Amino acid sequence: MADFLEFMVLALPEYYKGLQVTFQIAGVALLSGFIIGLPVSLMRVYGRGLVRWLAIGFIELLRGTPLLVFLFVVYYGLPEMGLTLSAILSAYLALGLNSGAYQAEYFRGSIQAVGRGQMMAARSIGMTRFQAIWYIIVPQALRLAIPAWTNEAVSMVKYTSVVYLIAVPDLLTRSKWLASKYFNPIESYLSVAVVYIVIVGILTLLVNYIERRLRIPGLEIESRAHH
Amino acid sequence: MTEPILRLENIHKTYGSNEILKGVSLDCQEGEVVVIIGPSGTGKSTLLRCINLLTWPEQGKVWLDGKEITEEGVDLNKVRQHIGMLFQDFNLFNHLTAIENIKIGLTKVLGLSKEEAQERAMQELHHVGLEDKHDHYPGQLSGGQKQRVAIARSLAMRPRVMLFDEPTSALDPELIGEVLEVMKLLAEEGMTMIVVTHEMGFARDVSDRIIFMEGGDIVEQGSPAEIIHNPKHERTAKFLGRINEIHAVDQ
Amino acid sequence: MLHNLSVLVPALLKGALITIQVTVISLGLGFLGGVLLAVIRVYGGKIPSILAAAYSMVIRATPLLLTVLILYFVITGIVDLPPFWAGSLALAIGSSAYQSEIFRGAIQSVSSGQMLAARSIGMSRIQAIYHIILPQAIRNAVAPWSNEAAIILKDSSLVYVLGVPEILRQAQYFSARTYEPFLAFGSAAFLYFIMTFAANRGLDRLEKKLEIPGLIMESQ
Is C220 part of any domain? Predict the structure, then answer.
């Protein structure tokens, strides 16, 4: 046990650097996912014809493929097609698109949970469809999506670990470096697991606090636990 | 004064294979309070939604203030500014406080300034007796209060006609009174109102005309006294008999 | 390229067989572990319940990839298991944590009156759990469990890191030989997509079949 703690102290500076990269990737992916996901969900719910089918196609294709496989398509496959991205850019792209598809589904669920009565009431005072969507539906849908979205945010920190396989120096990759250097895979991986557990724990508490502060009485929805 | 403020001509509406409205025609004078009664599922709500064209009839025309609103090219969003609608489940905007619920139509649809909107919104909240709840969210209000805020929201748009779709059906009995009081006040102030309801007391005391609908068409209409005490059709009498058992027509 | 395809497709399909096996084993073992843990969480005493909760929380807080790596080294340190089994076991342990959450929610959404009624006709606690609570809880769990099943199917790609010859690994071999990574990984992605699609369809049918008429499912 004392050895393990000693090792942890040794590893922490390395892990700190890795954590920065992890947060960077997670942040970019989450934000890109939001920027992509919200419009796509609107296309999915309110779009007609081709627009709607494009949205459905995007969502189903990206959710139906494992993140790791998609990452390989982007990092190894795209150069063959003429687009060579660095490892970190590939990570941004793959994780961002993947998150966008999942976020689109959360927003679709919350938009539908807002209820058609809200749309009717908005139209009945003379709002255009666009005004109704923008001022009435979306604000409520975003509120309802908060639990699922913050869940996704915390999980994103875990998902970024796939970049281990394309040698981006995130938290997980650094534990591998240490494992190779000191020939102690179990200790290394366990120590980084401790870091993940602590970070996820803190983030979860933070997220619960935010949810409570943002609560509007009468505007709640049950969210579904997921990875 | 003889030009009706609202006219419906031969409204047909079909859902799937069911014809819900079978050619309904109706005139309404300015300041008139019309109550529509009838069994559930006879298209009363659908008829109301055809008036402000939230639902489009397959056949038939609607005129508001002498202008046909079912014509091609009419800006329906503008038309709906002049027709107020109240819903059975209130449909207040849950993410906005009571006063913001009223202000949003004023600023975004009518284009009033923030100050004008604030003033008018507070005025209407006062009108329905809820100015002290202006900063409450719908989730913090009782059912009766929610419906009254919804009425204020409609009133603030200065409608020519107000449509009430079973406004008290979702309310606990002790909360119904406060909503009917406000509706009575509006009637006294001369608002043109079309109300779908089961509240026979309101129909008897406040309405100018009662319409009985069944099976997608108007069976009979007349003054409250005629309909309640002297219905000409057996179906009307039957329906009223059942209604009187459930909702005791109070003194 | 057409010639390469005729080599790629059989290889990917061989990988698919492995993928399916890994998925089924992980899901199955994860199911057993998950139900057991859930029952302990809900019905166990204070200490077992807290331990089960801690287990679930710790595993879910670590990336699945990391869980697979740790468990692989731990398991192969103790027993000489080939990567296929070590990987499947690791995935199973990871999945058991998520499945325990699903079943815990499902059990808790069975109304408490059911247990009262069962005890009142003389059933022991275990009988009540086995005959009355669990059958209803399982129905409640079908929807989120189908979700989890689809997730495991995709997460099985993580055993790639252990060298298990599943779909992704087959694609990588092909890509290394033919220098056509886009074809290889693109086809792998597409194959996963088809399998996920088919699995979702099948699971939807299962959901419909298992529905109890009139029983409203509580959402988690």
Answer: no
> Parallel, antiparallel, or unpaired for β B33-37 and B209-214?
parallel
The string of pLDDT tens digits covering residues B11-29 is 999 988 889 999 999 999 9
Please, which residues bridge with residue B196 across strands? B36, B165
Distance CA B240, CA B238 (A): 5
So what's the pLDDT on residue A175?
93
- In the block, residue with structure tokens 């009985």: B212
CA dist., res. C166 & res. C170, Å (int): 6
Model pLDDT, residue B251:
38
> ipTM score of the complex?
0.87
Q: What residues of chain A have any CB closer than 8 angstroms to a CB in chain C? A: 60-61, 63-70, 72-73, 76-81, 158-159, 161-162, 164-165, 172, 185-186, 189-190, 192-193, 196-197, 200-201, 222-227
Q: Best interface-test mutation with C: which of A65, A90, A196 has the largest number of C CBs within 10 A?
A: A65
Give the range of the structural domain holding residue C24, as residue numbers without chain letter: 2-210
Instruction: Tell me which chain C residue has its CA closest to the CA of residue A161.
Output: C63
For B100, residues 6+ apart whose C-beta sits below 8 A from its C-beta are B93
Residue of C nearest to A162 (CA): C65
**pLDDT tens per residue across span A175-190:** 999 999 989 888 999 9
Q: Is C216 domain-assigned?
A: no
User: Residue holding tokens 């025309």?
Assistant: B61
Radius of gyration of chain B (CA): 18
First to last CA, chain A: 30
Closest by CA to A66, choosing from C67, C173, C152, C28, is C152
Number of A–B residue contacts, CB under 8 Å: 76
| Structure confidence by residue, pLDDT tens digits, B173-220 | 999 999 999 999 999 999 999 999 999 999 999 999 999 999 899 999
Give the domain CATH number at C165.
1.10.3720.10
The chain A residue lying nearest C185, using CA atoms, is A73
* C66, C73, C179 member nearest A161 (Cβ): C66
| A162 vs C60, C65, C175: nearest CB | C65
Query: Are C69 and A189 an interchain contact pair (Cβ–Cβ within 8 Å)?
Result: yes
CA distance B248 to chain A (A): 31
Answer yes or no: is C162 within a domain. Answer: yes
Q: Do C62 and A65 touch (CB under 8 A)?
A: no
Domain tally, chain C: 1
Give the distance, in angstroms, between the CA of residue C23 and the centroid of all CA atoms in the same chain: 7
Residue C215 lies in a domain: no
How much is the pTM?
Answer: 0.82
pLDDT in tens, chain C (220 residues): 677 788 899 999 999 999 999 999 999 999 999 999 999 998 888 999 999 999 999 999 999 999 999 999 988 888 888 999 999 999 999 999 999 999 999 988 887 778 888 878 777 888 888 888 888 888 888 888 988 999 999 999 999 999 999 999 999 999 999 999 999 999 999 999 999 999 999 988 888 887 766 554 443 2
Contact C69 A77 (CB under 8 A): no
Locate the chain C residue with the closest alpha carbon to A196.
C62
Give C104's contacts in chain A (Cβ within 8 Å): none
Please list, residue by residue across C147-163, b when 16 or more beta carbons sit within 10 angstroms of its beta carbon and e when fewer do.
bbbbbbbbbbbbbbbbe
Tokens representing C139 are: 């129905």
